[in-house]
C-alpha cells in the first residue's frame, strides 16, 4: 500500500497522495484543474484496478475500458491540459503494468493507449524508477 509522510501529514492510497502533491506543488491551482485531475484518479482506481489485476484480462472488461480510453486519447498527448499531470501518474501507473502481468495481451487494438504508454514510459522519472525497458 502506498504511503506518504510529509511533516505532520500522513497519507495512504495513491489517489489521496497524488491529489495532496498536486495541491501542495501548485498543479491544481483552480477548482476546475483539481476536479479534472481528480476525475482521472478516481476513474483509474475504479475502472483500471479491477480490470487489469484479474487472472484473465481478455474475459474481463479491459477491452471496453481500453476502447473508451483510446477514444479519449485520440489527438491528445496527455489526459489533462495536454501536459503530464497527476492524472497521468494515476492512469499510466495501471496501464504500464499490462506487459508485466499480462504479457500475451494484444493491445494493438488500442493504438492511442499504446502511444500514451510510450510517452509516459519515456519520461526520465519513470525510467529512473522502472528502467528503460519496462514496456518490453
UniProtKB/TrEMBL annotation:
Record-annotated GST C-terminal domain positions: 7-136
Similarity annotation: Belongs to the GST superfamily.
Domain GST N-terminal: 1-29
Name the UniProt record assigns to this protein: GST C-terminal domain-containing protein
InterPro entries registered for this protein in UniProt: Glutathione-S-Trfase_C-like (IPR010987), Glutathione-S-Trfase_C_sf (IPR036282), Glutathione_S-Trfase (IPR040079), Glutathione_S-Trfase_N (IPR004045), GST_C (IPR004046), Thioredoxin-like_sf (IPR036249)
Gene3D superfamilies: 1.20.1050.10, Glutaredoxin
Pfam families attached to this UniProt entry: GST_C (PF00043)
Source lineage: Eukaryota, Cryptophyceae, Pyrenomonadales, Geminigeraceae, Guillardia
